[in-house]
Amino acid sequence: MKPTLRSLSLLLLFAAAPPLPGAAPEAPTAGKFLVLRNGRTLEGDIERVGEQYRVRRDGGETWIAAQLVVRLFRDTEDAYQFLRARTNLDDAADRLRLAKWCLDFRLRERALEEATAADRLRPKDAETQRFLERLRQPPPQPPAAAPAAPPPAPAPEPPAPPVSLTPEALGQFTRKVQPILLNACASCHAGDRGRPFKLTQTSDVAALNRKASQENLAAVLAQVKLDQPQASPLLTKAATVHGGGDKAPLGGRQAAAYRALEDWVKGTLASNPHLQDKLAVPVAPPAPPEAKPSFADVTPDAPRAAPAPPAHAVPITPTPAAAAPAAKPPDNGDDAYDPSEFNRQAHPERDKPPAPKS
Question: Which helix (H) or strand (E) element contains residue 110?
Answer without folding.
Answer: helix 108-121
